[in-house]
Amino acid sequence: MRKLILVAHTSLDGFVAGPKGELDGFEADEENLQFVCKLTEEADAALFGRISYKLLDSYWPTAKDRANATKGEIAYSNWYNHAKKIVFSKTMTQESLHNMTIISGNISNEIIKIKEQAGKNILIFGSPTVSQSLMQLDLIDNYWIFVNPIIFGQGIALFAGLAKKSKLKLLNTKQFSNGEIALNYVVDRQ
Protein backbone atom coordinates (compact mmCIF):
# COMPACT_ATOMS: atom_id res chain seq x y z
CA MET A 1 0.00 0.00 0.00
CA ARG A 2 1.23 3.49 -0.84
CA LYS A 3 2.20 5.77 2.03
CA LEU A 4 0.78 9.24 2.56
CA ILE A 5 3.58 11.52 3.78
CA LEU A 6 3.11 15.06 5.06
CA VAL A 7 5.94 17.47 4.21
CA ALA A 8 5.46 20.72 6.12
CA HIS A 9 7.53 23.72 7.14
CA THR A 10 6.68 25.14 10.55
CA SER A 11 7.92 27.90 12.79
CA LEU A 12 9.42 26.82 16.11
CA ASP A 13 6.01 27.52 17.69
CA GLY A 14 4.18 25.25 15.21
CA PHE A 15 2.74 27.65 12.62
CA VAL A 16 2.83 26.84 8.90
CA ALA A 17 2.05 30.44 7.93
CA GLY A 18 1.35 33.83 9.42
CA PRO A 19 -2.19 34.92 10.38
CA LYS A 20 -3.07 35.89 6.78
CA GLY A 21 -1.39 32.88 5.19
CA GLU A 22 1.89 34.68 4.53
CA LEU A 23 4.94 32.46 4.21
CA ASP A 24 7.66 35.04 4.76
CA GLY A 25 10.00 33.97 7.52
CA PHE A 26 10.78 30.56 6.07
CA GLU A 27 14.25 30.73 4.53
CA ALA A 28 14.19 27.77 2.15
CA ASP A 29 17.41 27.31 0.24
CA GLU A 30 19.01 25.00 -2.30
CA GLU A 31 20.20 22.55 0.36
CA ASN A 32 16.63 22.14 1.63
CA LEU A 33 15.16 21.88 -1.87
CA GLN A 34 17.63 19.18 -2.89
CA PHE A 35 16.71 17.26 0.26
CA VAL A 36 13.01 17.48 -0.65
CA CYS A 37 13.94 16.26 -4.15
CA LYS A 38 15.29 13.09 -2.53
CA LEU A 39 11.85 12.58 -0.97
CA THR A 40 10.21 13.01 -4.37
CA GLU A 41 12.31 10.17 -5.80
CA GLU A 42 10.15 7.78 -3.78
CA ALA A 43 6.86 9.49 -4.67
CA ASP A 44 4.78 9.84 -7.81
CA ALA A 45 1.87 11.92 -6.52
CA ALA A 46 1.31 15.17 -4.65
CA LEU A 47 -1.73 16.03 -2.59
CA PHE A 48 -2.86 19.62 -1.89
CA GLY A 49 -5.71 21.76 -0.76
CA ARG A 50 -6.96 24.16 -3.45
CA ILE A 51 -5.08 27.20 -2.11
CA SER A 52 -1.73 25.39 -1.76
CA TYR A 53 -2.18 23.80 -5.18
CA LYS A 54 -2.78 27.17 -6.85
CA LEU A 55 0.21 28.70 -5.06
CA LEU A 56 2.58 25.88 -6.07
CA ASP A 57 1.14 25.55 -9.56
CA SER A 58 1.79 29.21 -10.26
CA TYR A 59 5.54 28.62 -9.92
CA TRP A 60 6.72 25.02 -10.29
CA PRO A 61 5.58 24.01 -13.80
CA THR A 62 7.97 26.53 -15.42
CA ALA A 63 10.61 26.90 -12.68
CA LYS A 64 12.97 24.61 -14.61
CA ASP A 65 12.88 26.97 -17.61
CA ARG A 66 14.10 30.06 -15.77
CA ALA A 67 17.57 31.27 -16.77
CA ASN A 68 18.91 31.10 -13.21
CA ALA A 69 17.15 27.88 -12.16
CA THR A 70 19.14 25.87 -9.62
CA LYS A 71 19.73 22.14 -9.78
CA GLY A 72 17.07 21.63 -7.09
CA GLU A 73 14.52 23.85 -8.87
CA ILE A 74 15.02 21.95 -12.13
CA ALA A 75 14.69 18.57 -10.41
CA TYR A 76 11.62 19.55 -8.41
CA SER A 77 9.97 21.25 -11.39
CA ASN A 78 10.46 18.12 -13.50
CA TRP A 79 9.05 15.92 -10.74
CA TYR A 80 6.10 18.29 -10.20
CA ASN A 81 5.23 18.25 -13.91
CA HIS A 82 5.12 14.45 -14.01
CA ALA A 83 3.55 13.78 -10.62
CA LYS A 84 -0.14 13.03 -10.34
CA LYS A 85 -1.86 15.90 -8.51
CA ILE A 86 -4.64 15.18 -6.03
CA VAL A 87 -6.48 18.34 -5.02
CA PHE A 88 -9.13 18.74 -2.34
CA SER A 89 -11.61 21.34 -3.57
CA LYS A 90 -15.32 21.97 -3.60
CA THR A 91 -14.98 24.64 -6.32
CA MET A 92 -12.51 23.24 -8.88
CA THR A 93 -13.74 20.88 -11.57
CA GLN A 94 -12.05 17.99 -13.33
CA GLU A 95 -12.53 19.52 -16.79
CA SER A 96 -9.33 19.88 -18.83
CA LEU A 97 -7.03 19.21 -15.88
CA HIS A 98 -4.19 16.92 -16.98
CA ASN A 99 -2.89 14.29 -14.57
CA MET A 100 -5.12 15.48 -11.75
CA THR A 101 -7.80 14.12 -9.47
CA ILE A 102 -10.19 16.46 -7.67
CA ILE A 103 -11.66 15.23 -4.37
CA SER A 104 -14.67 17.17 -3.16
CA GLY A 105 -16.21 14.77 -0.68
CA ASN A 106 -15.88 11.44 1.12
CA ILE A 107 -12.23 12.13 1.89
CA SER A 108 -11.59 8.91 3.79
CA ASN A 109 -12.87 6.55 1.09
CA GLU A 110 -11.19 8.47 -1.74
CA ILE A 111 -7.78 8.54 -0.04
CA ILE A 112 -7.98 4.86 0.91
CA LYS A 113 -8.75 4.01 -2.75
CA ILE A 114 -5.77 6.08 -3.93
CA LYS A 115 -3.45 4.53 -1.32
CA GLU A 116 -4.50 1.06 -2.50
CA GLN A 117 -3.60 1.83 -6.13
CA ALA A 118 -0.24 0.74 -7.51
CA GLY A 119 2.41 3.42 -7.29
CA LYS A 120 4.92 5.17 -5.11
CA ASN A 121 4.35 7.39 -2.06
CA ILE A 122 2.00 10.37 -2.04
CA LEU A 123 3.42 13.62 -0.64
CA ILE A 124 1.26 16.31 0.99
CA PHE A 125 2.73 19.80 0.67
CA GLY A 126 1.45 22.56 2.93
CA SER A 127 -2.34 22.45 2.99
CA PRO A 128 -2.92 22.74 6.77
CA THR A 129 -6.71 22.32 6.63
CA VAL A 130 -6.48 19.20 4.45
CA SER A 131 -3.61 17.87 6.57
CA GLN A 132 -5.65 18.30 9.75
CA SER A 133 -8.59 16.45 8.18
CA LEU A 134 -6.30 13.60 7.14
CA MET A 135 -4.75 13.49 10.63
CA GLN A 136 -8.22 13.25 12.19
CA LEU A 137 -9.00 10.33 9.87
CA ASP A 138 -5.64 8.66 10.70
CA LEU A 139 -4.69 8.53 7.01
CA ILE A 140 -1.21 10.07 7.23
CA ASP A 141 1.50 7.43 7.58
CA ASN A 142 4.62 9.51 7.86
CA TYR A 143 5.62 13.10 8.64
CA TRP A 144 8.57 15.24 7.53
CA ILE A 145 8.29 18.38 9.67
CA PHE A 146 10.83 21.08 8.82
CA VAL A 147 11.17 23.24 11.94
CA ASN A 148 12.44 26.70 11.03
CA PRO A 149 14.41 28.96 13.39
CA ILE A 150 11.67 31.57 13.70
CA ILE A 151 8.82 32.22 16.13
CA PHE A 152 5.66 33.63 14.57
CA GLY A 153 3.69 34.12 17.79
CA GLN A 154 0.46 33.68 15.85
CA GLY A 155 -0.66 32.23 12.56
CA ILE A 156 -2.05 29.08 11.00
CA ALA A 157 -1.17 26.11 13.21
CA LEU A 158 -0.31 22.78 11.64
CA PHE A 159 -1.78 20.67 14.43
CA ALA A 160 -4.86 22.74 15.35
CA GLY A 161 -8.19 21.20 16.26
CA LEU A 162 -7.13 17.59 16.57
CA ALA A 163 -9.57 15.63 18.72
CA LYS A 164 -7.36 12.66 19.47
CA LYS A 165 -3.78 11.84 20.27
CA SER A 166 -1.46 10.32 17.68
CA LYS A 167 1.62 8.48 18.85
CA LEU A 168 4.63 9.00 16.59
CA LYS A 169 8.02 7.32 16.36
CA LEU A 170 11.08 9.34 15.33
CA LEU A 171 12.83 7.73 12.37
CA ASN A 172 15.33 10.33 11.24
CA THR A 173 16.55 13.91 11.63
CA LYS A 174 18.41 16.25 9.31
CA GLN A 175 19.95 19.61 10.22
CA PHE A 176 20.43 22.25 7.53
CA SER A 177 23.02 25.01 7.44
CA ASN A 178 20.28 27.69 7.69
CA GLY A 179 19.34 26.39 11.18
CA GLU A 180 16.32 24.44 10.01
CA ILE A 181 15.84 20.90 11.34
CA ALA A 182 13.82 18.21 9.57
CA LEU A 183 12.15 15.62 11.78
CA ASN A 184 10.87 12.40 10.22
CA TYR A 185 8.18 10.53 12.15
CA VAL A 186 6.12 7.47 11.38
CA VAL A 187 2.68 6.99 12.93
CA ASP A 188 2.82 4.30 15.61
CA ARG A 189 -0.46 2.42 15.12
CA GLN A 190 0.27 -0.32 17.67
User: Can you identify the CATH superfamily?
Assistant: Dihydrofolate Reductase, subunit A
**What characterizes the major β-sheet?**
8 strands, mixed
CATH topology name: Dihydrofolate Reductase, subunit A
State which percent range the strand residues make up. 25-35%
Put the structure in a nutshell:
The protein contains six helices and ten strands. The protein has 190 residues and is an alpha/beta fold.
Task: Give an overview of the whole structure.
Strand 9 and strand 10 form a beta hairpin. Helix 1 runs parallel beside helix 4. The relative contact order is 0.25. The strands form two sheets. This protein has an eight-stranded mixed sheet with strand order 5-4-3-6-1-7-10-9, sandwiched between helices. A two-stranded antiparallel sheet has the order 2-8. The chain is globular. It is built from six helices and ten strands; from the N terminus they run ββαβαααββαβαββββ. With 190 residues, the chain is α/β, with parallel strands linked by helices. The protein has a single domain, classed as Dihydrofolate Reductase, subunit A.
Note the main attributes of this structure.
globular, 10 strands, alpha/beta, 190 residues, two-stranded antiparallel sheet, 6 helices, Dihydrofolate Reductase, subunit A, 28% helix, 8-stranded mixed beta sheet
